[in-house]
Structures are given as structure tokens and as C-alpha cells.
Design brief:
Elements: H1 3-30, H2 32-35, E1 38-41, E2 53-58, E3 66-71, E4 82-84, H3 95-113
Parallel strand pairs: 1-4
Antiparallel strand pairs: 1-2, 2-3
């Protein structure tokens, strides 16, 4: 990967993180009872990232949970989320599962905004 590609990947990652934080804030602000708790935890499911990342999640039910490892410098930006001392149990979720769970949120939001 050349320098230009690294810069593009960094921007894409930053955009994804900010979009997820915005979605979590939206859900916490208006829809927390429908989608479950919006939470953050200093621990990380990917232990090799534990020193540099935290986990931000929507819902604590492991079959409906949507969560991502977020760089630690975003911690204060996520003060709207409930802080958990321990990570919720998590199934063997694949990236495709997260995408599917995110897509399932859309019809509910669409109904509310029409």
C-alpha cells in the first residue's frame, strides 16, 4: 500500500467511526428503548487493540448487538453512551452480521421520519 492509499484508508476509517458514533448518538437520544442500551467499554473484543481502542455498542443482547472498536481519542466524544465496566457477552459475530443488523435499523427509522 502506497502513501496515498494509506491516507485514503485513514480517511475512510475516520468517516466510518464518525458515522457509527452519530448513529449511536441518534439511537441513544431518541430510540434507546427500541434498540437497547447504547454503551461504551474501555475493554476491547480484539485484545491486541485494548491499549489503543475501546468498544462502542448498541444493544447488549449478543444476537442483536452492533459494536465496533473505536480509537481511544474518541472516548470523550461518546459521553452520551452508558459506560460499562465489563464487555457484554458476544456471539461469534462476523462483519456481515454487523452490516445486516445495521440494515435492519433502517425500516424502523424510516417509519418514524415519514
Amino acid at each position: 500500500m502506497d502513501q496515498h492509499e494509506k491516507i485514503i484508508m485513514a480517511h475512510l476509517t475516520d468517516n466510518m467511526v464518525n458515522l457509527f458514533i452519530t448513529l449511536a448518538r441518534l439511537i441513544e437520544g431518541e430510540h434507546s428503548t427500541d434498540y437497547g442500551l447504547v454503551w461504551k467499554c474501555r475493554d476491547c473484543y480484539m485484545k491486541f487493540q485494548s491499549n489503543s481502542h475501546f468498544t462502542l455498542g448498541i444493544n447488549t443482547d449478543n444476537h442483536n448487538m452492533i459494536c465496533y472498536n473505536i480509537p481511544r481519542y474518541y472516548w470523550d466524544k461518546c459521553n452520551f453512551a452508558t459506560t460499562l465496566e465489563k464487555l457484554p457477552l458476544k456471539d461469534n459475530t462476523r462483519p456481515e452480521d454487523m452490516v445486516q443488523r445495521l440494515q435492519l435499523l433502517y425500516p424502523e427509522f424510516k417509519k418514524r421520519w415519514e
